[in-house]
Amino acid sequence: MRRYPLLVLLLAFGPGTLAAATLEQLSLDDLIQKSTAIVRAKVVGSSANFRGVELFTHWKLQVEEQWKGGAAAEVLVPGGSVRGYRQSVPGAPELTVGKEYVLFLWTSKSGATYLTGWGQGVFELSKDSANKLMATRAPAGETMVEHGTWRPVKDTGLEIPFSELSSKLSATLGKGVVR
Questions:
Q1: Residue 162 near residue 174, CB atoms below 8 Å
Q2: What is the CATH number of the domain that holds 141?
């Protein structure tokens, strides 16, 4: 008899919680410190495959500059499409082949490389109306919480001139760019 209330709770709240992600808000300094690698890279291809029951897209990278860690040849992002199967993961960013990014990465014990803070670790590079190179991180569409208090906060994204971002990375890490 006790199983029914649990079943009702799972049916009532389970699907809603499965379709959402909650992310800890990371500052630019947090991204720099928590990442094992930081690179400027162009996405040159992608493929997807299963890792157990989960589907991952492998984004192939051509590293142009590197501020921290080793140059990563690819980054794994949960979700994707392969052999007629599609898996969407809330909060998982999607990169675009041919576009250039500054990526904040972390490498797991297994050697797989992921984005730090999901979409928070993705800064797309593009030129503004004055032809100035800008690094833009889109606002997170998922629930974001403040570190320590776990209070919900609104994420506004971030836009910064690439030269300023590059200078901050070099100053914070105490070394220049590796090309």
A1: no
A2: 2.40.50
Total domains in the chain come to: 1
What confidence score (pLDDT) does residue 23 get? Answer: 79
Residue 39, pLDDT > 50, answer yes
Q: Which residues pair with 122 in a beta bridge?
A: 103
Residue 21 or 36, more confident = 36
In a domain, 7, yes or no: no
| Distance in angstroms (rounded) separating the CA atoms of residues 126 and 160 | 11
pLDDT over 80 at 25, yes or no: yes
Is 5 inside a domain boundary? no
- How far the first Cα of the chain sits from its last, in Å, is 65
Residue pair 46/95 in contact by the 8 Å Cβ criterion = yes
Pairing label, strands 122-127, 100-107: antiparallel
| Cα–Cα nearest to 101, from 67, 127, 125 | 125
The DSSP bridge partners found for residue 56 are 49, 78
